[in-house]
Design goal:
This protein is of the alpha+beta class. Helix content is 16%, strand content 24%. A hairpin with an 8-residue loop joins strand 2 (17-22) and strand 3. The radius of gyration is 17 Å and the shape is globular.
Amino acid sequence: MGVSSERPDVAEATASAYRAAVVHRFHEPLTIDEVRGPELGPGQVRVKVEASGLCHTDIHAAHGDWPVKPKPPFIPGHEGVGTVTELGPGATEVAVGDRVAMPWLAYACGVCDYCVSGRETLCLKQKNMGYSIDGGFGQYAAAFSRYVVRVPDGIDPLDAAPLTCAGVTMYKAVKVGGTRSTDLVAVFGVGGLGHLAIQY
């Protein structure tokens, strides 16, 4: 990602030059910078972002709180929703014009024991949106077509965005737990994740 501290007030955003919230140093405020979008690699798509949720993980990323830290400068955000504007080589899962969501798990190898057993979130080669690759806190983002999820046109992007993190986390828990609609369950903490567990 190329970053410039100059912010044009009039220039229109394009896929090659757009504004994004950037972490330059841990524990400092994000800055709104003009960034140069990366060339799309194999299997990637460019997405014009409509909305991006804020997860507490984004705050941890911006503070460098965890042992495996993102490398500044980087663009946080792993709850992005937008429209595909460009396809990289070999990106066949979606088309230009598709509305998609970009989740935390941006990429996994697909062939390791974890991936083939449905536990791709443990893949040692995984890439994470807004952490190991630039995320959705910009006007555009690059994502892997195998890992974006189509979003129907009628769904508000502000409603869809948190489903890519808290929503997926709770949905997986309900599926793995074998929970049925007639089961009596307890949800401890009805916050960002818990309120979605109740709805599922």
